[in-house]
Design brief:
The structure is a single chain. The protein is of the alpha/beta class. It has a single domain, classed as Spore Coat Polysaccharide Biosynthesis Protein SpsA, Chain A (Alpha-Beta Complex). It is 32% helix and 19% strand. The protein has helices spanning 74-92, 110-117, 131-144, 162-171, 215-225, 242-257, 265-276; strands at residues 32-37, 43-48, 50-57, 98-105, 122-125, 149-153, 177-181, 187-193, 230-232. The strands form two sheets. A seven-stranded mixed beta sheet has the order 5-4-3-6-8-7-9, with helices on both faces. Strands 1-2 form a two-stranded antiparallel sheet. Helix 1 links the parallel strand 3 and strand 4 (98-105).
């Protein structure tokens, strides 16, 4: 997850550094009960409420996947991003007991994205001048709604195994932070657990050189400095360049040959169409 357009470091603390768990009931959520230690040493009950926040853009030509142009036309690049986004959301929507949230940009994109993804998810606008501020704002919003496990993911990894998402949620049972590194030097997922009353969420989005290959490394250093227990996912890849797109096609073809399930069905179909057209 790397902001491709902004190189300014984030120094915003926002309200993210010290946000406490609240109890909030959402119709779509499925709650689990966990025993927790209270300040008095007695055990209490905390309701576990989980969300996955997908950072999404309106798939408008010349606004998304611009690094694939001129290998693809602006319209084709927008269609490809649409396939990435809808494939990913369809898979994530199948996770039991998890609320799917779309953090969208620009501000007027909600209706267009709602037409693509549907009404059975929540939509919130992205807020902030750079990626760090937007991640901070989304996490703060989620804690204010009472979520106790929060995952933030991008929309550039259509083949990301759903098992990685499940593993991230499991890791948050015993870790404060979970992260999934991407092969471009960023990360495809970061998540937090705030299940213990009074625990603060680490401020790990500060002093990061967004849009560089140093994002993951700097984030790990930040987590280490905060002494936050970390859960680590396997690396995965984003699709940003023509080389990435060629690898994606080869990977999906190999998955088919190996008899593995391909979850990115819209992406696969569109790539087939592009190849038929000689692209």
């Amino acid at each position: 997850m790397r902001n491709r357009k902004t190189h300014r470091k984030s120094t915003s603390h926002g309200g993210f550094c010290r946000v406490y768990v609240k109890h909030f009931i959402c119709k779509r959520s499925v709650f689990a009960l966990s025993a927790i230690g209270t300040a008095s040493g007695k055990e209490g009950i905390l309701l576990v409420k989980v969300c996955v926040i997908v950072f999404a853009k309106n798939p408008v030509p010349n606004q998304v996947k611009t690094r694939l142009i001129p290998n693809l036309s602006p319209e084709q690049a927008a269609r490809l991003y649409t396939a990435f986004l809808t494939d990913g959301c369809e898979v994530l929507a199948k996770l039991p007991g998890v609320d799917l949230i779309i953090a969208y940009t620009p501000a007027e994109a909600r209706s267009d994205l709602q037409a693509l993804i549907g009404d059975d998810v929540l939509y919130i606008p992205q807020r902030g001048a750079n990626l760090g501020e937007r991640l901070t704002a989304a996490t703060q919003w989620a804690t204010e709604q009472g979520y106790t496990k929060i995952l933030l993911v991008g929309s550039d990894s259509p083949t990301l195994p759903i098992s990685y998402i499940s593993k991230a949620l499991t890791l948050l049972d015993s870790r404060d932070v979970v992260i999934g590194p991407s092969t471009d030097g960023g990360y495809y997922l970061i998540g937090f657990s705030v299940e213990t009353l009074g625990k603060t969420v680490p401020c790990i989005f500060e002093e990061i050189a967004w849009s560089t290959a140093d994002v993951f490394q700097q984030t790990v250093v930040r987590i280490q400095s905060l002494k936050a227990p970390l859960g680590l996912l396997p690396p995965w890849y984003d699709i940003d360049t023509a080389g990435d797109l060629a690898f994606l096609h080869a990977h999906i073809s190999a998955m088919r040959l190996a008899g593995e399930t391909v979850q990115a069905v819209k992406t696969e179909s569109l790539l087939t169409d592009f190849l038929t057209m000689g692209l």
